[in-house]
Amino acid sequence: YPAKEKLGIALVGLGYYSTDLLAPALQLTEKAYLAGIVTGTPSKAETWKKKYNLPEKNIYNYQNFDQIANNPDIDVVYVVLPPSMHREFVVRAAKAGKHVFCEKPMAPSVADCEAMIKACKDNKVKLAIGYRCQHDPNIQAYMQVAKEQKFGKVKMVTSAAGYFDGRTNHWKQNKALGGGVMGDMGVYALQGARLATGEEPISVIAQASTTRPEIYKEVEETMMFLLEFPSGARASCQTSFGINMNYLQVNYEKGWLKMEPQSGYNGNKGSMSDGTLINFTIKSQQAKQMDEDCMAIMVGTDLIAPGEEGLRDIRVVEAIYKSVKTGQLVKI
Ligand code: NDP
């Protein structure tokens, strides 16, 4: 196809995140636009078609989705489904020859993530994970502190991400659909620790718990985990569907840094022991994410959060569940 000014994105799964965040963000993007939708709910197809002026030919369901291969309007398929469905739709999108954006958590298992990366590689398409925070200058600011060793080595990280989820019958409480707080909010607590140290953890010990066993029957409501990094840095992380919390504290050899919130849609901000403030404003994290990812695809540069970055988290998530099951420290 001829070079385009904007890439056409098709959102797959029109739930909360597509409806409330991604579609509005796609009205603000400069390198991407909402070109199509893939939904299992015919009434949503009608609503979205009118609201976003979508041509009928760019509307798919889960059965006829593979025909998207023949649609030049769609450059990127953005998978916004429950986590257990990510692998199937990423692989189908890759086989259709489309670049893929996939929401976090990338998939329930390392094996799934590896299959998704391979499918995209084999079909010569790009795979980006929806880690919107890595596109946020406030998060990039603390990543830079680790990189420059501004306050020396990282000694200790405390990282928390959780919210109170009042729902009682959602996929987040269903194991088969990829629920559980660890993959959901837990990856933000984990990313806080990984990005603040700039290192990959080498061991973990974890504890799962719930205060609402009648709702959290199959998956954990709360997860606490301790990470050890190669430099000797340690992290204490917590995530929950029962507690509103969102902060990061990093203690270095010669100073400290605090973020609160650390992984919000907006308003992430913080301060450092030398008085430096972190407080950038951006119009839309999701718009910035999709613009930067589309730009990377168009010019052929590296993605900020490729499939391999999603896999790094899931490798730790798997080790966390193994630690919960065995009650032991698990090497990663
Ligand atoms: P929702 O439950 O609100 O929406 C999921 C959608 O997936 C449904 O509306 C439905 O869309 C489709 N779907 C297809 N099969 C099923 C099924 N068996 N059960 C439930 N839904 C199904 O989820 P969210 O929008 O909150 O989350 C979707 C993804 O986005 C997850 O991976 C989540 O972690 C991620 N997310 C990321 C955020 C971020 O900040 N990066 C924030 C929120 C979510 P349809 O009716 O169109 O078929």
Q: What topology emerges from the helices and strands here?
A:
Blueprint: E1 7-12, H1 16-25, E2 32-38, H2 42-52, E3 59-60, E4 76-79, H3 86-95, E5 99-102, H4 110-122, E6 127-129, H5 137-148, E7 154-164, H6 181-184, H7 186-197, E8 203-209, E9 222-228, E10 234-240, E11 242-252, E12 255-259, E13 270-272, E14 277-278, H8 285-299, H9 307-326, E15 330-331
Parallel strand pairs: 1-2, 1-4, 2-3, 4-5, 5-6, 7-10
Antiparallel strand pairs: 7-11, 8-9, 8-15, 9-10, 11-12, 12-13, 13-14
Helix pairs in contact: 3-4, 4-9, 7-9
The structure holds NADPH dihydro-nicotinamide-adenine-dinucleotide phosphate (NDP).
List keywords for this structure.
alpha/beta; globular; 332 residues; 2 domains; single chain; 32% helix; 6-stranded parallel beta sheet; Rossmann fold; 9-stranded mixed beta sheet
What does this structure look like?
With 332 residues, the chain is α/β, with parallel strands linked by helices. It folds into 2 domains: 7-132 and 287-301, NAD(P)-binding Rossmann-like Domain (Rossmann fold, 3-Layer(aba) Sandwich); 137-280 and 313-331, Dihydrodipicolinate Reductase, domain 2 (2-Layer Sandwich), CATH 3.30.360. The chain is built from 9 helices and 15 strands. The protein has a 9-stranded mixed beta sheet with strand order 14-13-12-11-7-10-9-8-15. A 6-stranded parallel beta sheet has the order 3-2-1-4-5-6, sandwiched between helices. Strand 9 (222-228) and strand 10 form a beta hairpin. Helix 4 (110-122) runs antiparallel to helix 9 (307-326). Residues 13-18, 39-41, 44, 80-83, 103-104, 130, 132, 171, 177, 184 line the site of NADPH dihydro-nicotinamide-adenine-dinucleotide phosphate.
